[in-house]
TrEMBL record:
It comes from the Bacteria. It comes from Actinoplanes auranticolor. InterPro entries: P-loop_NTPase. This is Shikimate kinase. SUPFAM superfamilies: P-loop containing nucleoside triphosphate hydrolases.
Length: 163
């Protein structure tokens, strides 16, 4: 099984993209929609629970598992993923999308959590780029983001050296 992790800053479209991928036949899970990962103003994934999620997908015969979300400890857990993809979005778009949000995941949309996200925006993107994440322009409409994601992930896989 191939595990792809897709992450991005707040309001980069992670949950929307996960729903779009699932609607179009991909095994995609939005980890951000599960509020049990959240503790206060931070998100930390339980490594055992993440491993169980991946293991269950493998047992079900899933070919490619798309895990979509954000956690403060995701970089530490990134060895579990075959490819990491970064939804790239600028701060102005983050603020605009937060203001336009009507439904979905509102974790950290206001106050100190939003301020913290904006302050850590540049370092978040840099950290995932250093990790080798494939970068996708998340300011485009969702179908275009999904197409670019699928293309970039496929290109990454096809150009890798065999193990």
């Amino acid at each position: 099984m191939f595990v792809v992790f897709v992450t991005g800053v707040r309001s980069s479209g992670k949950s929307t993209l996960a729903r779009y991928l699932a609607l179009h036949g991909h095994d995609a899970v939005s980890l951000d929609d599960d509020t049990t990962w959240a503790a206060g103003n931070s998100r930390r994934w339980d490594p055992d629970r993440l491993d169980a999620l991946i293991s269950t997908a493998r047992e079900r015969g899933v070919q490619t598992l798309w895990l979509v979300g954000h956690a403060d400890n995701a970089v530490d857990l990134s060895a579990r993923f075959d490819v990491c993809a970064l939804l790239d979005i600028d701060q102005t778009t983050v603020v605009h999308r937060v203001g336009q949000r009507r439904g979905g995941n509102h974790f950290g949309d206001s106050g100190a959590a939003l301020q913290k996200a904006l302050e850590s925006h540049t370092s978040f993107l840099a950290r995932w780029r250093r990790r080798g994440a494939v970068t996708v322009d998340a300011t485009a409409p969702v179908p275009a983001v999904a197409r670019q994601l699928l293309t970039e992930v496929a290109a990454t896989v096809l150009t890798r050296e065999p193990h």
